[in-house]
Write a structure and sequence with these properties.
The chain is of the alpha/beta class and 373 residues long. It has twelve helices and 18 strands.
Length: 373
């Protein structure tokens, strides 16, 4: 019997372990596990070795882009493009720029006027922000053969870090839900630390609104939404869980399975003048928005986005002004990307989170303790 399921996972809930164990249960048929980044792909492979000793021959682990190239672009490009596609070019801004006007307006090659330049570089590499759109075109042009091919090959398709997909990726997800394969989506919509597409398609569902997309754009009851199975964290203690959950009041509050205690547990405000002492005493990893933020070079530091998926005993956050505004008033409007970055930063630690904040003696903010020397 075909099943479709979206699992909303909390930070530190053991999402990768869950996916690997689900794949290992499938003794017949083939399993595809695909995820957006190469780092996530490597983590899944590592977890297979850790749990099972090897990756079973019936399991394929690859990035989302590799999946689209192998099963969508290369087998079915002929109906849209006569030249051979020679790979993909990763882009971080809208691709296919035609020219920039004197006033600074950017004009791009359109699909209708110049299909080749809209999708490809001069040496026939497909732009990363256009690949899912091209696959959708290939699927339509071939009467659904792209999705049919995937379902013929794989009885189970697992998509990790589902919150990273956007634009025409979502159209592909909609098609997969209707195919014969069993589909499992797993991710944490609270951890969207960068945008993968600038595509206008389904822009209302960017920043991880995959649940809303399924509820609003897909046939009713086509996909079960599970917000319970992976809502327990094995990383953060109860105090960190409770405070980080304030960032997303519309989500079920995360439950902590981390019961170890130390002499310094919870979320603390740390005055700038006490940072050196705090670093020396607790040796936290410093988390910052970018390399432009000045930190203590004698201690480890890492950017918010790069810390996603990592676990540390303790962290010290160098907050942005937007973070500070929200700390002062949890009802303050916090842009989605800032909210995600703050959530990621808060949920990296097992025992304690320090936030640099010049509090007054009268300061009393719920969920926060004051570090004193």
């Amino acid at each position: 019997m075909k099943t479709n399921k979206l699992i909303i996972a909390a930070a530190g809930s053991g999402k990768t372990t869950f996916l690997v164990n689900e794949a290992l249960k499938q003794k017949s048929g083939k399993v595809l596990i695909t995820t957006y980044t190469q780092a996530n792909e490597a983590e899944i492979r590592k977890k297979f070795i850790e749990i099972n000793g090897w990756i079973p021959p019936n399991v394929t682990v690859q990035t989302w882009f590799s999946t689209l190239l192998q099963h969508g672009v290369r087998p079915y490009q002929g109906g849209l493009c006569e030249k051979t596609v020679r790979g993909m070019l990763l882009v971080n801004e809208p691709s296919a720029l035609k020219y920039t006007t004197k006033s600074g307006k950017k004009v791009y090659y359109s699909e209708s006027a110049d299909l080749e330049k809209h999708y490809f570089t001069n040496d026939m590499k497909i732009y990363s922000d256009k690949i899912s759109k091209f696959v959708c075109r290939c699927n339509k042009n071939s009467n659904g053969e792209v999705v049919n091919r995937l379902s013929r090959i794989f009885s189970h398709i697992f998509i990790d870090e589902i919150q990273d997909l956007a634009g025409y990726d979502l159209e592909i997800l909609k098609l997969l839900l209707k195919c014969s394969s069993n589909i499992l989506f797993v991710g944490d919509p609270r951890q969207v630390t960068y945008l993968t597409h600038n595509e206008r398609k389904h822009s209302q569902y960017k920043e991880g609104r995959i649940k809303d997309f399924i509820l609003n754009e897909c046939p009713k009851d086509i996909c079960e939404i599970d917000e319970v199975t992976l809502n327990r964290t094995h990383r953060n203690n109860k105090l960190i869980c409770e405070y980080s959950s304030r960032l997303y009041p519309n989500f079920a509050a995360c439950i902590s399975n981390q019961t170890e205690t130390t002499e310094h547990d919870g979320v603390f405000l740390v005055k700038e003048e006490h940072v050196g002492h705090y670093l020396q005493k607790y040796n936290p990893v410093q988390l910052r928005d970018s390399v432009k933020v000045k930190v203590n070079k004698d201690y480890k530091s890492i950017n918010f986005g790069e810390s996603k998926g990592l676990t540390f005993d303790r962290v010290l956050i160098y907050p942005t002004q937007r973070f500070i505004n929200w700390i002062n008033d949890n009802n303050h409007e916090l842009p989605p990307m800032s909210r995600s970055k703050f959530y990621v930063a808060l949920t990296r630690a097992k025992y304690s989170v320090g936030i640099i904040y010049n509090y007054e003696e009268s300061t009393n903010l719920e969920g926060l303790q004051k570090f004193t020397v």
